[in-house]
Write a structure and sequence with these properties.
Length: about 170
């Protein structure tokens, strides 16, 4: 199985909208923000509008397995990270059929390549599958994960990624 990430482009707007919609539907189990849809069936179209056009420290990627899209991952630089962090995982989503096969781990590692330093992410406290995923990924990199209460129902995780350990 070949896992790659490629930078999202303007031509990916519809794909991103659909992936974010699937993602936000799942987040509805942990967050009331995604309790209703608009007249077109979307939870938050502005999510994609906010990251298009790309740049200014926002790096969205399409996750591909064997050349076919199966998810998204978005990294931001220090401007959008917790204080003291260089990078932040803002989003990571895989369609259900792609889960449990190491694809998310591979995509996260690819996104971290060339970006050593302090990383952060926030996860809903009640989202045990996501918490377990990130804790496993961070532990596999040989670094300790620091947990702190975040805003609302979130838990902030921080860790250090060294070049070559990704």
């Amino acid at each position: 199985m070949d896992v790659r990430i490629r930078p999202a482009e303007a031509r990916d707007r519809t794909l991103l909208m659909n992936l974010f919609n699937l993602y936000q539907n799942e987040l509805g189990a942990y967050c009331e923000d995604f309790g209703s849809i608009d007249e077109n069936g979307y939870f938050a179209v502005r999510t994609v509008d906010d990251i298009l056009p790309f740049g200014d420290g926002v790096f969205p990627y399409i996750i591909l397995t064997d050349g076919a899209p199966c998810g998204l991952i978005m990294v931001t630089d220090a401007r959008y990270a917790l204080p003291g962090c260089n990078w932040c995982f803002q989003e990571l989503y895989l369609i259900r059929a792609a889960r449990g096969r190491g694809i998310a781990q591979a995509a996260a590692s690819l996104a971290m390549n060339g970006r050593p330093g302090r990383w952060c992410l926030s996860v809903y406290r009640r989202n045990q599958p996501a918490r377990a995923f990130w804790e496993r990924l961070i532990a596999a990199r040989g670094t300790e994960c620091e947990e702190r209460p975040g805003e609302d129902d979130m838990l902030d995780l921080t860790f250090t990624a060294k070049e070559g350990s990704l």
